[in-house]
Amino acid sequence: MARRKAALVTGSTSGIGLAIAMRLAADGYNIMLNSLEPEEQITGAISAVKKVAKGGVAYIQADLALEQGTDLVIDTIAHFGRIDVLVNNAGIQKVSRIEDFLQEDWEHVRAIILDGAFHTIRAAVPDMLSRKWGRIINIASAHALVASPFKSAYVAAKHGLLGLTKTVALEVAESSITVNAICPGYVFTPLVEKQMKDQAQVHAMSEDQVRRNIMLAPQPTKQFVQVEEIASMASYLCGDMARSITGTSIAIDGGWTAH
Ligand code: NAD
């Protein structure tokens, strides 16, 4: 019997990553979950994925800011025997004026979003090349395509992630490996909930004003994107009908980047 394909989703115990993990688990992939937290703190997320899974579900705690992405991929291959789908989803946000931006915050954002994806991709590609099939999906952002004030590190890292996406796509195109970036607008997740407080402080507004005047202002639909919409696109990109979609950015942003 052919072995089940395996997918690693980074930052997958919350928000978008959890929704993608649940969708790919329901699609039949063996799923490696990852986040920063010790396993006993995220049992709810792990059981939610197990409930819908058709294959195996496992969890590895790893901090992508500490260059643990390579080991994460190696351990995923050791556990499931292969890696077919890599979703680089882990990310954080820091909001501050450029002149006040702490170097450690700049480095932390870049280390997770950009360096983290570099390490996991570099480690996963040889295994994908060996079977001549793979899907790499980088969860970038509308901020990989356009900027907003006070988010210098995040915007720079996400633009960089798009550059990495395009470059790797060219290198592996002849081996049926696709590499794409999904670029969501505002999706209501714990990351955005926390950001609402930070934005309220930096803009001297209430959280409700931030929601209406800052977050949903550039999103013409005036609605948050749902995590399932992102998960559904990830699932589609993993299918054979998406084999010619590579090296591109797919905006799911309620029209934001049409401005
Ligand atoms: P979230 O805060 O709900 O989840 C982030 C996940 O990443 C968590 O599981 C967390 O444990 C993990 N993580 C954080 N730091 C990590 C580290 N150092 N090592 C390993 N894991 C780590 O966030 P979310 O809103 O679901 O965002 C997921 C991705 O989507 C991020 O890359 C984010 O930039 C991107 N994104 C989010 C939005 C949005 O509006 N929510 C919009 C565009 C892009």
For the record, the CATH class of the largest domain is Alpha Beta
Number of domain modules: 2
> How many H/I helical runs?
8
The beta-strand count equals 7
- Tell me what the CATH architecture of the largest domain is: 3-Layer(aba) Sandwich
- The CATH superfamily label of the largest domain reads NAD(P)-binding Rossmann-like Domain
Query: In which order are the strands of the major sheet placed?
Result: 3-2-1-4-5-6-7
Q: What is the CATH topology of the largest domain?
A: Rossmann fold
In a nutshell, what does this entry contain?
The protein has 259 residues and is of the alpha/beta class. It has helices spanning 15-27, 43-52, 69-80, 103-131, 152-172, 190-203, 207-215, 227-238, and strands at residues 6-9, 30-35, 57-61, 85-88, 134-139, 177-184, 249-252. It has a seven-stranded parallel sheet, sandwiched between helices.
What are the salient characteristics of this protein?
seven-stranded parallel β-sheet, 8 helices, Rossmann fold, 7 strands, binds nicotinamide-adenine-dinucleotide, alpha/beta, 46% helix, 259 residues, 2 domains
Which helices and strands occur, and which strands form pairs?
Blueprint: E1 6-9, H1 15-27, E2 30-35, H2 43-52, E3 57-61, H3 69-80, E4 85-88, H4 103-131, E5 134-139, H5 152-172, E6 177-184, H6 190-203, H7 207-215, H8 227-238, E7 249-252
Parallel strand pairs: 1-2, 1-4, 2-3, 4-5, 5-6, 6-7
Helix pairs in contact: 1-2, 1-8, 3-4, 4-5, 6-7
The chain binds nicotinamide-adenine-dinucleotide.
Nicotinamide-adenine-dinucleotide (NAD) is lined by residues 10-11, 13-17, 35-37, 62-65, 89-92, 112, 139, 141, 184, 186-187, 189-192.
